[in-house]
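Case study B.
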Amino acid sequence: MERYLLRDDIWWAGAIDWDVRDFHGYETSRGTTYNAYLILDEKVALVDGCRDGFGPEVLARVMGCCSGRPVDYLIINHVEPDHSGAIPWLVERLTPQRIFCSKRAKETLAFYYGAQMVQAWDPQVVTTGDEVALGRNTLQFIEAPMLHWPDSMFTYVREAKTLLPNDAFGQHLATSRRFADEVDPAVLMEEASKYYANILMPFGGPIGKMLGKIGEMGLEIEAIGPSHGVIWRRPQDVARILEAYGRWSRFEAPERVALIYDTMWHSTERMTMAIEDGVAQEGVECSVLRLSVNPRSELARQVLESRAFLVGSPTLNNNMFPTVGGFLTYLKGLRPKDRIAGAYGSYGWGGGAVKQVDAELRALGLDVLDPVDARYMPSAADLEACHELGREVARRVKRGLEP
Ligand code: FEO
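Model:
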């Protein structure tokens, strides 16, 4: 089995999930990886586990690197089942002397795997600043609550200047390559952006604080090994992903508009095209995304990467269209901030959808434009109003958010 050296004494010992396409509702069109890292020093430490079913692959990689040496320590940075699902299986086979995790992780492990089993493991609770010496290397722990669960923790390998931050800085990307500099940069950043949008967007505040804390602690970071996707090992790649996280956590976005809509009998679709033409006439880039043919995970990425988004809905039985309702429910959980937004759509017998969408966008605290609606089929005047909505949203995008 191929072995992958991250740097110094740190080896990748993860598993590749080529097949996963639905990751708790996030369409992972390129699969993912569950990364674990093995530090081969005077003491041997395994950082992180993997999803249930992938234990044999991780175990084989650990064995391949260890050449018969036992694993002394296991560090559990995060308990979500894509990282801890195989931990009971791995602990039974690797029998580490000690397990380290955060206080919240210890509590959460008991919920998933039973208090009795966790008591038997007797994990040692660590907190920010705690260290474990391995010999040439020292592990330093940094609690990272809400990045993206309360139990989350980063492990920093001080001498190797390598951060192992579990979910942070990841991408759902299955590849035979292990490093960011070995894959197509456009694909890489698209997947990193999609990952941030769907997993981390609600936690911009804690992420900003964490980036500040890393600076205050004076951590030198020359490589970042996340728990999903490829490893950032060159200075320019580390800088690129840290810069992107800074930008995303501040909700900064390019001058771009996303039109997210669905349609029953093409009325809302025609309105969408008129809006798109208005945006384009102002020289602003515009994406058009019909809900029934685009996964939610891509729509979330478009919201992250666009300074404005408009939501178009037909009215069905006095309500917004179900796909629109599903999208807005998902978006509510992601808590986007600092975006210009707006509602438009069509109705027949009575209104409904546009008012509801407008109310949902206002409830999110966004900068919401006046809505536009049309009865049955949009008239020339309705299409002109849509065109003007497109021009107005584009002008607002260029001006930036109102103070
Ligand atoms: Fe990759 Fe929060 O699990």
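Residues 380-399 form the longest helix (20 residues). The remaining cases will be described in the next quarterly update.
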